[in-house]
Amino acid sequence: MITATSNGQIKQLQKWMNKSAERAKDGIFLAEGLRLTGEAPAALVRTLYVTPKVAQAGIPENLKGVPTEVVSPELFAKISSTDTPQGILAVVSRPTWDPEAILRRKAPFLVVCERMQDPGNLGTVFRTAEAAGVSALFLSRDAVDPYNPKVVRSTMGAIFRVPHFIYEDYKVLAETFRKQGIRTYAAHLRGTMSYTEADFAGGSAVLIGNEGNGLSEETAALADTLVKIPMAGQAESLNASVAAALLMYEGFRKRGFDRQ
Amino acid sequence: MITATSNGQIKQLQKWMNKSAERAKDGIFLAEGLRLTGEAPAALVRTLYVTPKVAQAGIPENLKGVPTEVVSPELFAKISSTDTPQGILAVVSRPTWDPEAILRRKAPFLVVCERMQDPGNLGTVFRTAEAAGVSALFLSRDAVDPYNPKVVRSTMGAIFRVPHFIYEDYKVLAETFRKQGIRTYAAHLRGTMSYTEADFAGGSAVLIGNEGNGLSEETAALADTLVKIPMAGQAESLNASVAAALLMYEGFRKRGFDRQ
Fold it and tell me: Is B3 domain-assigned?
């Protein structure tokens, strides 16, 4: 059992917990809690850390056989990102997908998040994207790190399963979409077409902007269609993950609630 | 200018910030930040607290004339619920509404939140409810306090405008709905009708449950219709505020995007 803060693995875990660049350098992220680790594909789990209590109660079925280390409860609290740790944490290799293969599908359904900043919002977008049969997410480099522990937790496991990519420059991505015949729909306050009128037929991408400022002018200008979400009262905007959900579910609905 | 932690007003503000029962006893809540105080109806604002910087830059137009106290920046940090205070905080009387009048409208559109626990989710429900033209929210007594500073902040001002009520016992509320001819639609994993098939004609209430456990069996059993939200992939559920948004916007759509 690991009991010393000075242990090399513990030091590494603390770095991974706190630093996006450290996680990126090693191509990993951390998944914590029984529910989340219970959904981690064993092939991606490098090491599992558990408290003696969890070791005794039994680790999730899917993780039997993965390299496991037992850590004292006191030490576990130091490597946990939550106030009430469940005593189980996995170091997970980042899954990879082939963007070309996804874009070449008959009618991919994509979501682009530009500068989304709130970890809970991004996690919720992942979770909703899986439920709405979205083919892939594209996240701008300046958005919150999708491998931030709070984002990972709020994806409720969708981060293991929803293909996702980081893009540097939306202009380049827009050109790729154009070449593949993918139509882009931006949620925008200046939109004239209601999102319920958009057909989402053929390859489609939904563009969602930053919580405070919406989409950048440059990205909105590149969108094929600006759609609006009708709003009553004095409401000026919706939460970014709610706006994303309404558009994702509209696409899902227009596609007969079929997975893409 | 108030500079001492021992000042009676400061002590009271700290109590209000931290204790739900203190806020309830005095019938108030705290609204913090330029955006939120800028939407507070002056008639409800008892006292406004600002830092010298904000006092000099000018308080929001709507609050000119309300009793205002200047507080040193050091002290303001102690009464703020955020890490980066904007230096403006209002003590607001809780608005009240007449539930009978709302229920007697031709076709009220209501939302019931049972045991919603996450402040961000409840705030988002308020915000979406305003945008979706919802007539009123009903919150179970054991839900998170809607006047919790985090909830208030994430309503983005909707808490001032969306009529809301706390209920003790759903059975009593259900009986009131029945007498008024209000049909209840519960988001439920056992639902057989897709939410897109629900007509939401006439008085309607959408029932949303707890984040982890959904609606209680007792409440689900009292619902007129259990609706399901189709889900692809391995997704087992949606974020509670997303599920609420999909149902609210479906009702809004079926009502021609008209405010109720």
Answer: no
Are B232 and B121 members of one domain? Answer: yes
Q: Quote the DSSP letter at residue B90.
A: E
pLDDT tens-digit series, residues A179-210: 999 999 998 988 989 999 999 999 999 999 99
Cα–Cα dist A147/A25, whole Å: 12
pLDDT range class, residue A172, cuts 50, 70, 90: very high
CB contact under 8 A, A253 and B196: yes
Q: Residue A113: what pLDDT?
A: 98
CB contact under 8 A, A131 and B233: yes
How many structural domains comprise chain B? 2
A246 contacts chain B (CB < 8 A): yes
Amino acid at position A18, single letter: N
Q: Counting every residue, how long is chain B?
A: 260
B225 and B156 housed in the same domain: yes
Contact B232 A133 (CB under 8 A): yes
Is residue A30 located within the same domain as residue A122?
no
Confidence (pTM): 0.95
- Within 205-234 of A, beta carbons closer than 8 Å to B belong to 229-234
**What is the b/e burial string over B54-83, where b = at least 16 CB atoms within 10 angstroms of the residue's CB?**
bbeeebbeebeebebbbbeeebbeebbbee
CATH code (residue A15): 3.30.1330.30
Shared domain check, A103 and A82: no
**Of B41, B60, B93, the domain-final residue:** B93
Could you say which of A93, A128, A162 is where a domain stops? Answer: A93
- The runs of H, that is alpha helices, within chain B are 8-18, 20-26, 34-37, 52-57, 73-79, 99-103, 119-131, 149-154, 158-161, 170-179, 217-222, 240-254
Q: Hey, of A161, A249, A260, which one would you mutate to test binding to chain B, going by the most B CBs within 10 A of its CB?
A: A249
Q: Which residues of B touch A253 (CB under 8 A)?
A: 196
pLDDT, tens digit (0-9, with 9 covering 90-100), for A100-124: 999 999 999 999 999 999 999 999 9
- Asked if residue B2 is part of any domain, the answer here is no
Nearest partner of B58 among B34, B81, B41, judged by Cα = B34
Q: Are residues B118 and B39 in the same domain?
A: no
Q: Is residue A118 part of a domain?
A: yes
Contact B99, B164 (CB under 8 A): no
Q: Is the Cα dihedral A73, A75, A77, A81 positive or negative?
A: negative
Q: How far apart are CA A113 and CA A108, in angstroms?
A: 16
Tell whether B183 is covered by a domain.
yes
R_g of chain A, CA atoms, integer Å: 20
Cβ pair B132:A232 closer than 8 A? yes
Please indicate if any CB of chain A lies within 8 Å of the CB of B241: yes
The chain A residue lying nearest B247, using CA atoms, is: A246
